[in-house]
Design brief:
By secondary structure, the protein is of the alpha+beta class. The protein has one domain (about 5-135): START domain (Alpha-D-Glucose-1,6-Bisphosphate, Chain A, domain 4). The chain is about 25% helix and about 35% strand. The chain has helices at about 15-25, 30-35, 115-135; strands spanning about 5-15, 40-45, 45-50, 55-60, 70-75, 85-90, 90-95, 100-105.
């Protein structure tokens, strides 16, 4: 059995979980908050295709649920293994009157320490972007 090294990052956000959940679930918002990981995204033939620093990638997100689960799957279109998807666990949970967003980053097989550290920095920045954006969404 192979276990990948992982690190779970989190950010406390002064915003209701439902607001964050709905914002992230809408993949049109992906390049708005995840600016380090996604430059743009478009829906092509029923699939979300993102422009990433590594090239085009297909992105799938967990179906709507009541648990705050926002797991998504990313597959680089240039990958030689057409079935190779990266699992990206993400949750939003209640934290007092606000929320906690939890995001796990895996060090994939063959990934250098430098690349893993870079991925962690990118996710930390993206989580701060998410915080900044959703804390300013008007609620009614």
């Amino acid at each position: 059995m192979t276990l990948l090294r992982s690190r779970t990052l989190n950010v406390s956000i002064n915003c209701k979980p439902k607001t964050i959940y709905e914002f992230v679930l809408n993949l049109e918002n992906f390049p708005i908050w995840a600016r380090m990981a996604c430059h743009s995204i478009k829906l092509l033939n029923g699939e979300w295709i993102a422009e990433t620093p590594q090239g085009q990638a297909k992105v799938r997100i967990m179906e709507r649920n009541n648990l705050g689960i926002l797991d998504h799957y990313v597959r680089l279109l240039s990958s030689p293994n057409i079935d190779e998807e990266v699992f990206v666990p993400m949750r939003v949970v209640q934290n007092g009157d606000g929320s906690e967003v939890v995001f796990t980053v895996y060090q994939l097989e063959g990934m250098s320490e430098e690349k893993y550290a870079e991925d962690l920095r990118m996710v930390e920045q993206d989580l701060q972007n998410l915080k900044s954006i959703v804390e300013n969404i008007p609620t009614y």
